[in-house]
Amino acid sequence: MPQRVQYDAAIEPLVQFIENTSPSEIVDRTLERLRAGQDIQTMLKASALAVTRSSDLPPGHHGGPLHPLAGLYAISKLVERMGADESRFLPVIQHVALSNKHINDPVTGPYQLLEFAPLNAANASVSRLADMAADGGGDVVTAEGIEATKEAFLKAVNRGESNKADHLFLWLWDNAPPMEAFDLLMSVAIPKNALDDHYFIFPANTWRYMQNYGTEYLKVMMRPAVRYVARFPMARVLPEIDALIEEHQLLSRILRQRTGDDETAKIGEVGEAICACANYNEIPKLLAQSLVDGLSLEGAGEALSIGAAGLFMRSLTGNPMDVHLHTSANLRRWLISLDGLSLRNKLYTLLFWHTGPEVKATQYRMEPWPQPNMEAVAVLPHRSQADLLDAIAHSIYHQPPTDWSKVTNLGMMRAVPEVKNTVNLAQQYVALRYDPEALIMRLAEIVCHDSFTEMHAFKHHQAIVEEFRATREPWRWMHLVGGAQAAAISFGKNMMIYEEALDLMHAVAAE
After folding, report:
1. N-terminal to C-terminal alpha carbon distance within the chain
2. Residue-range domain boundaries for the chain
3. Which of 117, 409, 426, 457 has CB atoms 3.0–4.6 Å from 484's, for a disulfide?
């Protein structure tokens, strides 16, 4: 009889703690363990393993393991930046509480991820599995067997056979180089971005976490992403993207991979053209032509990042989860730099950015470029760095509360006018070239309030930090303004976990 996935003795008790603790006590008990010295990164890993094992994927993309796993890298990096005081516990508690919530949600639980035998192309039948069990052995691994199993996986995806795809991928992780297996998974995930941004974001962000924090649980933590990517039949690859690649012979042309100082002017030119774009279908054409003109893949990724920042600041969206303009560009830029990812997947990664529904929808609610309004910024009173940081925070903390009785479609929400106050103040801050790290830390404190966006706010914060640090002058500062804008949009929607944790911290401190 199949048994649920079991973890090693070092982490299994902590996983069970997250699975078995009541939602009404999870914040209190998690804080208690962290104060007692529980290692933060181990707690986060246990949270991810718990939500992987004990919550199912929902029909959409909210609930289950998707956002806890996709947000794990951002949370882990945020904790590292937050210093040694107890404020570093807040994002950890947010993650554990979210995992615990989905484990106990009747939409996604109760659920058990089961152990089962891996499949390859030679043993992918019930009778063959029975023969193997009787023989006590498996098949000899050959290059032909690996390729045949890849084809079997793609056939399973084309039929929407997510369970079979899971079986096959377990075998591939064991018998093919991990990067080769990941490249195969992304060859399915990237085109499906046109159906939902999360088909791309989920496997890529989960992989990114493990490349930074260890691959000991790779096989099990990637299982929900494999099942998610394979659960519906293969998406139709956009013919215009393939035509663009063919027209410019991008797969046969020698393309420069790494960027350099010689590309600065071209990167800025392409990035600003994307900022001003009214029709997102023009973006892949701009990027493809820039590659033909000699821009490196990394340079094109940086231009896309600049463009994403500009388009985000033009966006009128008030939906705090509509941050994929920025987060997806950041993730794509990282993937483009990876050794071992195929050229086709790198080109798809770059040219499919605009296809995600949550990205593409923003083009229908945009202000003209450039943004912010520099005239409004110019009339702001001069403030010192400390005073301006306080003014930015005050403008975020005092955004008008959302009247949820009037919200019938989250995706159609528009930002309230007061968001512009925050944006203008942030633009003044970066124009004065005040300390960027001070602003980053203030925004980090603010993002820890968020219990609403299922990690979107945390992912956006990490994206703007990385893009600021990786983008060249003078465009890098746009990312910090975008970070302030996102903070103003998301703040106050739901802060229940933050407020409960803060109350507990203050209560103990007062004793």
Report:
1. 51
2. 12-113, 126-230, 239-364, 374-498
3. 426
